[in-house]
Amino acid sequence: QIDDLAEVDYSLNRLPAVFQPFIDLDLKGIVFPAGNYTDSPYVAASFTIPNQSESMLYLAFSEYFFQTSSFAYYTVGAFNMTIAEETCSYFNINTEIFGSIIPEVAKYSVTPYPVMLKLMATEIPIVSLEQDSFTIEIQGSMEVLAVLPDSTTQSLFTMNIAANTSISLNIFDQKLMGSLCLNR
């Protein structure tokens, strides 16, 4: 079990290959929704690890591992979230701010009300491994709702979102660090 949402099958694909200087363990790496082992819509492609011998341990993760992770978390709704003032202390946006950008919101809401954002992935995020980084493509939608005085909500507008992000991982001072770049 990875967390409350997903599990991983890391059983052996074949018997370990034992050589004089090393052992080669070929493990599966399929992530699936917790308690619901489902077949993945992806096909695993074989890959080879460059022959190196400077380190004691080498780990390799395939694109398939990340694709099944994305599928599992999408299936259980992990990419859907609601951002509101109550759940996020630094989030303090109201209808007045949106009204200055979108005139229709200003016409609808003369009194400034707090807003709530509902973010939802509309397709399984696509993960692609590249030479020195990996890319995540996410399709989603965002609904902006006004929170009225009686705690009900009124939808102001919905927009579709397409994001393409690259993440590069490096090791600095024995710590794994990542840098995030929004491509589009």
From TrEMBL:
Compartments where found: Secreted
Origin: domain of life: Eukaryota
Cellular compartments per GO CC: extracellular space
Domain Lipid-binding serum glycoprotein C-terminal intervals: 23-184
Keyword match tRNA processing: no
Assembly and interaction partners: Monomer. Homodimer; disulfide-linked.
This protein's name: Bactericidal permeability-increasing protein
Natural source organism: Menura novaehollandiae (superb lyrebird)
Top-level taxonomy: Eukaryota, Metazoa, Chordata, Craniata, Vertebrata
Gene label: Bpifc_0
